[in-house]
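User: I'm writing a short report section on ligand binding and want a predicted complex to refer to. Could you take this sequence and zinc ion and write out the structure as tokens? A short remark afterwards would be nice.
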Amino acid sequence: MARISALPGFARAVRHERELHRHERFDRARLDEHQRRALARIVAHARARSPFYRDLYAAHGVDEQTPLHALPPVDKSDLMERFDDWVTDPRVTLARAQHHLSSASQGLLGDKFVVASSGGSSRRPGVFVFDPNEWDVVSAIALRASRWCGFTPRLPRRRVAFIHAPGAQHMADRVSRTLELGIHRSQRLAATQPTDELVATLNEFQPTALVGYASVIALLAAQQIDGQLKIAPSGVLTDGEPRSAEITNRIRTAWGSEPFDLYAVTETGGGLALDCQAHDGRHVYEDTTIVEVVDADDRPVPDGNRGHHLLITNLFCRTQPYIRYRLSDMTAYHPGTCSCGLAFRRLEPIEGRHDDILELPGRAGTTVHLHPTVFAPLFTLDGVAELEVVQRGRQLQIAVVPRSSTDSDAVVGRVRQHAAATLERYGCDTQPQTLLVSHLTRHPIAGKIKLVRREIDQQQPGPGQQ
Ligand SMILES: [Zn+2]
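Assistant: Sure. The structure tokens for the complex follow:
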């Protein structure tokens, strides 16, 4: 069976990356033209090869001449329900792809397709299939991220530690395996491993670059500050989860460098937006993806205003076309242009998902809606290592992991007092429940933690962010 991570694949990725590099010199007009042409090609391909899109576009009377904003958006549930009609290659079916994933094979489906799963943080994990050309672009996008972060090849080779979901089927893992032949020595760690184990392995490996979920990197930064972890990475890249200002500060304190933040979505082949050396917003990879920030009715919102969700259009995935695909992440476009001169527009930090907004009982029988960022100050309280805010029914429960060598009861007391004052200020008619814990439970498959969330019928909402 054919395997990925072969040298020819790496060489092709390098060639594609040169092409991506060339796009970074485009001005706005050239980029708009590039997007228009790529969109027309992908819409024409979807109409010709995907029964799902053929039916949808026929019903709406649209085609490849139609401007982007007039194309009907699609949801994950629509695509997954009609998976076999959605994909454009009859050799790929949901049953085959799922069988391939469950066999834990590292080979290619039908000797051709790379199959990956999302982290599984949603009840219905996504299934993602890439043909060799698509996979080359995915790999090139990862190389671009290395270049932007300054993780350029050198001798002796850089040592990069990746901390993501466990398992070779996960997208981040597959990308790192494809690339490790060429440029870096890599160490892959699972976000679900106990902290002591992560610390011991990293102390041994001594990474020169650290890449992983924001919550895990935050935990490791605390370990570094407290003296258990002793590493000196010259670069830190977080991904997979929203990163708060508090986490950013903690990383600066721990390792003295400004961390990069990759916004990655498995559907778009991993990387979707990344900050440049100016660290003033994340530049969307506009040559490979179109990102629309829209209101609840899918209408664009002005730059600087937070949208209700995003519409993602992937410009290179032809096996599974994503055209105006709804993602519940909330963010805004940064107004103006970046000092680095790149024409790619910039996204503000992701503020969580609209389905993360908490709904708590208010005074006089009302319902109070609270955005996750309302609780951001709790994470900066003295003595807090980690913290999780969960709405269960009408209750707000806060699990607190105190820093070592602190008075845990005092830390929990501070959190309770601060949270109660916050709820009071927003007119909530409920008291927070606090809980002292030694660690937070990560999602068993994804290895992620959603720090502020609402639990409805045990469902973990949200489509496949990596
Ligand atoms: Zn920039």
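A remark for your report: The domain at 357-455 is CATH 3.30.300.30 (GMP Synthetase; Chain A, domain 3). Confidence is low (pLDDT under 50) at residues 1-5, 457-466.
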